[in-house]
Design brief:
15 strands, about 15% strand, single chain, 2 domains, Rossmann fold, 6-stranded parallel beta sheet, alpha/beta
Length: about 350
Amino acid sequence: MDKRVIFAVAGSGKTKTIIDILSIDKRYLIITYTNANHTSIINRIYNRFGYLPQNITVTTYYAFLYSFCYRPFLFFDFRCHGINYKSPNNRYASGIDRYIDNNHRLYSNRLSKFIIEKASALEIKKRIARYYDYLLLDEIQDFGGHDFNFLTQISDANINMLFVGDFFQHTFDTSRDGNVNSSLHEDYTAFKNRFRKMGLSVDETALIKSHRCSPTVCDFITKNIGIELYSHRLDETAITELIDTADIMDIYHNNNIVKLFFNQHYTYACYSRNWGDCKGEDQFSDVCVVLNETTQKHFKNNKLTNLASLTKNKLYVAITRSRGNVYLVSETALKKALLQK
């Protein structure tokens, strides 16, 4: 069996790699975490085949856990309907109350653990191998908590496996539960070794250059954020810091340029998203990255590498959405410009 994990860089073709593997004579299970990426993958399958072949299943991770793993084995024993995506309020709960809320819904952050404990990993592996020849998993860097342990439990299933992801695009975890895998993403080398222990080969060379980002953007990321990034492209673009009020307002009102905020983008009346939420999106040309106060201070002091890991990763995600130019503006300067308009 071919079992691999490919660690890639932003814009290098992670999703394309999954799509290129597909054929009409094998059975594929594609699992992704976000609804946006789920939609993106289905659209790409339509672009390739003209339709969604019956031998290809695309599902979000929690839909897979609930519909494919929980319902066939455990529904008639526990009669749970739906998933509660909030963490349990009572940390002293014991027994079945650790997994099921008062409305008889399953807690998302313990669902994979519940399935392994009550149904067994062996039964899950048998069921996967019965229906599929390939398990393809996108955004592997975001798996955490009990969910990463779940992958470890099923990794030796009698099926081909390909996991793809970018360690430095880790911006959230599929689940968290106390100290379970709390240090999983602290060290890249240790993270890779976890997959080797699963029996997967680790590929760090197949997707090492970005098709999306220009050499200008890649060089900025490498030198300023400390994440090594190279480009397949030869053309140069521009990275511009906006200081003048008129320039700031021109970009702010330009609906062809998305404004990417650290958080709460919805408080601004412009075409906008949050840094971490735009992960996986590939439709932007020029982007304007709005730097929150902490990031702006680090930027001015040439110390972006010292940002907290999650903040640095989100900034990396935001800047690498660009196929063209990148505009940087401090949120403080933007607020002042809006008051002067």
